[in-house]
Amino acid sequence: MSKKKTKLNAKWQLDAAMLSRPVDLTALLSLSQTAPEQFFEDNVAHLLVSKLLNNADERRSDKDTKLDVLTILGNLATMKERRYKDEIRMVLQGVNKWFDDYLFSEEVRPNAAGALGNGEDGGDVGARVSLTKHEPELHKAMLVLLARCFDYKLKTEDLLELTGDNRILALEVIVSLLEEGETYTTELTQRQAPGGGSGPAQWEHQLVCMRHERPLILQMCRLLRGFTHPSTYFTGSRRVSEGKDEEYDVEEFSKEMASLLQITVRSQLVEKLSVALHDVLFQDDVLDDGDEDYGAERSDPYGSLLCEADHLAGAA
User: Fold this and answer.
1) What separation in angstroms does the CA of 128 have from each of 131, 178, 258?
2) Cα–Cα distance between 38 and 12 in angstroms, integer?
3) Which of 132, 215, 134 is nearest to 170 (CA)?
4) Out of the domains of life, which is the source (predicted)?
5) Which of 45, 186, 191, 224 has the fewest CB atoms within 10 Å distance of its CB?
């Protein structure tokens, strides 16, 4: 009787990964790009959220594990069939309140709500104290996931909901995404095939770079455009503090505006946005400088035309 061959699908690889501490999802990251449909079998996508993303045990699911889960779901959200996107939306409904709190506790510095420096620590007066402990990787991955899942139609208020209505954090997340312009993931690749006298198969981790897609860059432009709308600052301008209904005062609003301006100037946001728009929208119009046909027209002259919404986002 022949031995039944084990199918190394997404469910099998997830079960195997669950044996490691913390859980290593490298193999599943690769699979989410080569065979994403497998994650919709055996509730694998749902299990990633329930068993790992919502897991408070750092020994089992640390920040890197949770970041891998968001990256995997983000890869799945690029699938064009509507049923897959609908399934990812259902998966996201399983994200619990604990993870929302974890986002802030892990990446946002306590008592640093975008305060302005006063020069006492030797820094410049008015210099912005960074709101985040380090790169807001989890916030960025979640924003990319949501943008892809909802067909790049997020509004600025959706971003503010993700950042707890903190505009400074929201702008930092967008700036960080535009600064990178790409996503780095680790894949498991085969370095040596088995047999042939060379011994067993050998595998290695390989860093893979994936540039952000055009719709994602345009989505970031639209979110930035929202920062030019008064409603972003004055809708719901009253808040409840210690049971009392208070209004934001002029001094607080001025400090927040100064912080947002500091982010814009110090991060060279205009330059980064220009480079991002050029690389994503217009670079394909011409060939590389070293090509003798440099300047030749594309075979598809309409491929780079922008719709009205794209023009509004870029002009903002």
Assistant:
1) 9, 20, 8
2) 11
3) 132
4) Eukaryota
5) 191
Beta carbons of 226 and 156 less than 8 angstroms apart = yes
Nearest residue to 85 via CA among 129, 24, 151: 151
Cis amide bond preceding 22, omega within 30 = yes
Please list the alpha-helical segments (H only) found in the chain: 10-17, 26-34, 44-47, 63-76, 82-92, 97-107, 137-149, 156-162, 167-180, 214-226, 231-234, 250-266, 269-277, 308-315
pLDDT for 94-136, tens place per residue?
999 999 999 988 888 765 544 434 334 444 433 444 566 678 9
Calpha distance 221→226 (Å, rounded)? 9
191 within 8 A of 204, measured Cβ to Cβ: yes
Do 179 and 267 contact (CB within 8 A), yes or no?
yes
Cα Dmax for the chain: 81
Residue whose token pair is 């400088």: 289
